[in-house]
Amino acid sequence: MRTSTSFCGELLDLVRERNPLVQCITNDVSMNIAANVLLAAGASPAMVSAEEEAAEFAGIAAAVTINIGTLWAGAVPGMKGAAREAGTAAKPWVLDPVAHYATAFRRQVVSELLELKPTIIRGNASEVRALAGDVSQGQGVDSRDSSASARGSALTLARRHRCIVAVTGDTDFVTDGTRSAVIEGGSPLMPKVTALGCALTCLTGAFAAVAPGQPFEATIAALALFSVCGEDASHRAQGPGSFQPLFLDALAAIGPQRLDAEARISLQ
Amino acid sequence: MRTSTSFCGELLDLVRERNPLVQCITNDVSMNIAANVLLAAGASPAMVSAEEEAAEFAGIAAAVTINIGTLWAGAVPGMKGAAREAGTAAKPWVLDPVAHYATAFRRQVVSELLELKPTIIRGNASEVRALAGDVSQGQGVDSRDSSASARGSALTLARRHRCIVAVTGDTDFVTDGTRSAVIEGGSPLMPKVTALGCALTCLTGAFAAVAPGQPFEATIAALALFSVCGEDASHRAQGPGSFQPLFLDALAAIGPQRLDAEARISLQ
Amino acid sequence: MRTSTSFCGELLDLVRERNPLVQCITNDVSMNIAANVLLAAGASPAMVSAEEEAAEFAGIAAAVTINIGTLWAGAVPGMKGAAREAGTAAKPWVLDPVAHYATAFRRQVVSELLELKPTIIRGNASEVRALAGDVSQGQGVDSRDSSASARGSALTLARRHRCIVAVTGDTDFVTDGTRSAVIEGGSPLMPKVTALGCALTCLTGAFAAVAPGQPFEATIAALALFSVCGEDASHRAQGPGSFQPLFLDALAAIGPQRLDAEARISLQ
Hints:
The structure is a homotrimer.
Chain A: H1 7-18, E1 21-25, H2 31-41, E2 44-46, H3 54-58, E3 63-67, H4 76-88, E4 93-96, H5 104-114, E5 120-123, H6 125-131, H7 151-161, E6 164-167, E7 172-175, E8 180-184, H8 196-209, H9 215-236, H10 240-253, H11 256-262, E9 264-267
Parallel strand pairs in A: 1-2, 1-3, 3-4, 4-5, 5-6
Antiparallel strand pairs in A: 6-7, 7-8, 8-9
Helix pairs in contact in A: 1-9, 1-11, 2-8, 2-10, 6-7, 8-9, 9-10
């Protein structure tokens, strides 16, 4: 077990060096901000999701991310095809089960996607609690549970699906079912900017792409980068509107040393 | 009839207190900015539109908004299902008939949606004039008629469909067919930022969600909030690009007293 | 052959005077920024793409632009219908073959669109090289070839399809197969902001709309406007996040004289 968290800076360097091609099958709200987050951090986003090409494209992508935010039936074959291809090729894929509890359709699609064995699941506390089968206050896409309250659910989920689970919120929690990490930082402005969580899912894919066999560390590094840059941007922002450009600037400007120095990660 | 407009601040407080879940079936241009406008103002947006879940989700949403900006045939069943469910559950729903005059397809879909009895219709002057059957200069999505020229059309529409009609533009006009209000403010920069009108439609849904039985007041309050914050942001903006983050900051920062003090509303 | 490039300022004036209605069939990542770029520059964007109305809408639009960034099978009939209608009505239409080399589906759709004779093709170096049948390093949507390396490919393509070809990147290159122009300017921040190239495709449509019979000059003017405003914004930006609002402000603020004075165009 690693006791230092300097792998965060190392992985950030690798993202910038290798510029991994991340296939983002994401929702229509997050498309633009997710692509900008990946570009700012140093990765190469590609929003390729159609049934006709998603699986084929997963063959050239370095990682796949799948988000059900604006789900429709026509999107499901592309999601499954890309996830299956990622599995076959042993490439990481990340699942973001946005508001999966809200409708029968979402619950069904998420259960089918879970069978395709995501490498990483990232969600807010309401999503992770509900996915583990625990009581959740979630209604829409915003969490109505504290992130600390979802840690037990995250452990359950990680063990059940043999994957990494990340709960993001006021503090973040990452676990592989055995090891875990708490990441502090960020800003109360972040949930006031739509789709930042969705963008973080895509960024997690970028880090996982450059850290084969280390999805736990990759997830921590992506979350730490978000937290440090979010906190930094919030100090200069006047509100959720000015936060967004400042946050992208911070993602592009930060170096590995500063990331390692400012990340507040407790490995457990 | 109310002679004071302090209900605007009261409703803003209610939006922040209740954080209403607003189901926004909106176009692909406006998804991100509409969600950010709702979050900044204090509501909880959910962009849920697919046939498989839109009606079910309307069952948990506090209001529904429907915008035909990037209409396609596959979107229509979800729109109708959500509108129908809102009607059954006596929840407010808002129609934004973007450029409905432009094609036969749009005209047909809007006429079908009108049969489902929207609580509120919000459009620009060209859209409202054409919807009332009056001569309109509209071609694309931008208005080519002055908002003042659409007041008679708005009254006609409101009486015909027994709903609130809001015409937004250089000045705004709201009517329930009997009472009416003129709202001044805003900025010439606002039509230079895409999809702000669409975002306002969603925001109107948020206000209607917390004002059952008062869609006239809710619409005025949403428009007044937009006008005050738009004017405020325009004083500091250097152009349409810097306007957008400043506008979101203003929406998040404004308090009820300031809204009431600065809103320029003439009730008639 | 024109030796002065003062047509750039003249065409910018015409865009603002005529406010051309540009039908943008573009990808879901670029929708918002493309519309904002067109509004800032003075045009009127309309994102109308569905099979049910795209061809009909092309009948009222002044130009059509087609971008395959987030292609799916349901989008193809609308693309073809609009392109065909533009051809019949002798209106300009612009093709942006995003990452066409990445999958069989994209290659097939692009070959079908090429048969409908685009007036202008705009792409990055990897896209233009691959489209001409030359070796390309392209994988995802970001270019991995230098723009200078694609000049021969652009000439080949322009002659083969009797159209204008624009390669954009660190320097831009425009050719009609005989004449050519190199445009310098812009900023290394621009490829770090998603979908700016897609927005430029739409802007090229706006310029072509006001310059009938002069698509070569229209393309140069659109690219010169982007380069001058991009360079201007980059001087004040702190990174890719703050670049975007500054860039939109610059597009709205620039006058024709300044465009002509600052554009760095070599006609050849």
